[in-house]
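Components:
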Amino acid sequence: MYRDRAPRWLYILVAGSSLVAVLPLAWLLLLSLRNSQAIAASSAGFTLSNYAAVLFQSMMPLYFLNTAIVAACTVAATLVCACLGAYAASRYRFRGRETILVVILAASMTPVIAILVPLYLYAASLHMLNTYRILVIVFTAWQLPGSLWLLRSFIDMVPVEVEEAALVDGCSRLGAFVRVVIPQILPGLLAVGLIVFVYVWNEFIIAVSMSSREDMRIASVGLYFYISEFGIEWGHIAAAAILTLMPPAVAFLFVQRHLVNGLSAGALK
Amino acid sequence: MLWHRHPERRHLAPYFLLLPSIALVVALMGYPVVDLFYIAFHRTSYFRVGAFSWVANFMPLAGPGGLSSALATLEFVVASVSLMLLFALPLAIAMDAPFRLRGILRTVALLPWLVSPVVTALLWQALVNPSFGPIPWIAATFGWHFAPLSSPTTAMGVLVIANVWRSYPYALVLLLAAVQAVPTELYEAARLDGASAFQEMWFILLPYISRTIGVVTILITFESLTNVTLPLIISDGGPNNATNVYALRVLNEAFTNYHFGVAAAIGVIIFLLNLGIVISSIRNFIAREHSRVS
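Structure:
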């Protein structure tokens, strides 16, 4: 700890940054609660009509459903692949281990925007544009490297002896992994699941390039097209934006402690 | 280690376990990168990739439009990264000290990170909207009437601020973890020797977290360089190409003009810039591992 007692300027700094973080969002919330006449006239008067319009007269509910399906599949696929890989990386010593891991880590830094053109051309030639599959596959590939490294650092912290004891007691290796390792790395799994979920929920570039059909959009893409298709109805857009923010915010508050710990465990190990 | 006692099982199992990860990474990252270079140096017509074309696809980048993109990219990245560090570093130091409501304030300061890029873009577009946005309204009370997105300099300013607002929490989390990891004994020893608060920061804290600052700088440079959502939605490259960064041009060349070759060429440039960043980060990583072991 740098200082035992916080001097006053630290308070001001922290409070100021919290204001900077919160004020724009609070203003967005206010905007979503006023209809277009009220916004134009800068008058008070609150209404839920924007939310009603988004929920009952737009395609946003379908887009939320699309996003939820893609996110659930991506989280499941990422957790399974990353668990297997992380277990191998943590518990086995084999030729090329460090190289494979560093290559996977380096690959995770491949910028999406740089290889968007080849990815789009593959998806088009495989007739996979406008499917859930292509989004799940690409998102999983993008989330795997980071998840694998994060889970590896969690598995590293589980003592091998516990696992050996389970083997001695007659567990199979898979049984030992499921019964002994998984419960111990639950915070890690939770953190990875949350990171992947938030990523999918917020992803835009891959989704906007891969789904041109209106009914296959995910939430962020639907929100983007909200501007052009409905004229700029700022109250509606603000309401749709607030609704889009909700799932990641709720998920984050739910497992916040694990996320912060999990991230720093992976980043600074 | 567990598996050393079962030498016969050592050989193939780990490769099988890593197979799904390796396959996905090779198929969706490795191979497309090779293909990217192939496409960039070949003539394209819509989805068809034709004859070798030398550097024809790169030529649009050498003209005035290309130079303004290079300049816009440089401005966006440099301004974003320096502002994020200026904002996150003091905040990380401040948040390490104990104070009332620390837990809540830490969470609140991280909030923008949860806001998706699309929502961030719409939010800042609305905040600077000349008819109802609060920022032009506040400026007007000081006698400054302006529409931020219609002048090149202020449009870039809005982009940078939106980017910093959303991404500094990422830098903050990593820096805070590093600040917390500095051993308390070092400060105690320095205090016994009569060090001032400034000296403690300058001679202990900053050297101790310098590697993390390096890593964070690399990560946020990477984030800014490849950010396409904010430029697309907030200003769409305008006014007058002032915010037409490389990342945005990939999208427009590919999906507006259907010049996949030119889009791939810009992709190559972004990839090479990133490769430089990756190489330096791996070097940094290896150096860190060595210093930890020795």
